[in-house]
Specification:
Elements lengths: L18 H24 L16 H24 L6 H33 L7 H20 L5 H28 L20 H71 L1
Length: 273
């Protein structure tokens, strides 16, 4: 994906948008619409939870994107930036985009989990290991975004954020294995248990798998769009720096000109007396 640069007249042009991105966007809309249709009107209610189980078509897919897709891209981009042979601002921007989109999905994970947990557990929130570690993940992502806005040299900022992204990635396996390591209210496996036994079958299984595809496409589209915004922000910052330096140079040139002009007449008068 190319970066955004200034044109010859100083105007910014937006980054190149590949054709596949439009295909991904259309695919995301279509699969999301099919998920809604199947989830609300085609699949039957659960034998135990009734219509409440329809959150199965939202919550697991959103959590998967928040943990594995966003966390994996952020970690990969950060490691590739820290590695000298692959160091490029492309990886830094990609990691930043993944963390920001991941923060959105982490928040949605907590919201949908609370909506599901209230009628099942009787409370909106409890200091369950899975919930607490997910909330910590969101806080770490918000901290990363705050760190990214601290004024610093671009390379220094990128290195700091890369280290922060690695710390975020450490929390991902904690969230994943929290239901196995501690005694929690949260169930262990929605689709597969540790023995690889399916808990979802028939149309409910296919609808849930379609939701995974839909939210994955949504993640890819949001990631690409957020990357383009990151490129534009860097380009605007570079342009503002160039304008500021140009103005400062002009001010210095004017001061030098005024100083030289005021001294020249004095020298002529001194020479003529």
């Amino acid at each position: 994906m190319s970066t955004s640069m200034s044109t010859s007249d100083g105007a910014l042009r937006t980054p190149w948008r590949p054709r596949w991105l439009a295909v991904v966007g259309i695919g995301a809309v279509v699969t999301a619409a099919l998920t809604v249709w199947l989830g609300l009107w085609v699949t039957p209610p659960d034998e135990v939870q009734g219509n409440l189980a329809r959150l199965l078509y939202i919550h697991p897919a959103v959590a998967t994107v928040a943990l594995y897709w966003a966390g994996g891209v952020a970690l990969l981009g950060s490691l590739l930036y820290l590695w000298p042979r692959t160091r490029s601002f492309f990886w830094d921007r990609l990691a930043a985009a993944a963390v920001e989109v991941g923060a959105v999905f982490s928040a949605l994970t907590l919201v949908t989990g609370s909506l599901w947990g209230r009628p099942v557990w009787g409370v909106w929130w409890t200091w369950d290991a899975r919930l607490t570690s997910t909330a910590l993940l969101l806080l770490l992502e918000l901290g990363y975004l705050a760190l990214r806005r601290v004024p610093a040299d671009a390379h220094i900022r990128a290195k700091r954020c890369a280290v922060a992204a690695i710390l975020i990635a450490i929390d991902v396996p904690i969230v994943h294995f929290s239901v196995d390591w501690w005694n929690t209210l949260h169930q262990s496996g929605t689709v597969l248990d540790p023995g690889f036994n399916l808990h979802v079958h028939g149309s409910m299984l296919w609808t849930m798998l379609l939701s995974f595809l839909a939210f994955t496409l949504i993640f890819v589209w949001l990631l690409a769009m957020r990357y383009r915004i990151e490129v534009l922000q860097d380009a605007v910052g570079d342009q503002e720096l160039e304008v500021s330096l140009s103005e400062r140079w002009n001010e210095d040139a004017e001061l030098v000109g005024v100083g030289g002009g005021s001294g020249a007449p004095g020298g002529d008068e001194g020479g003529g007396s």
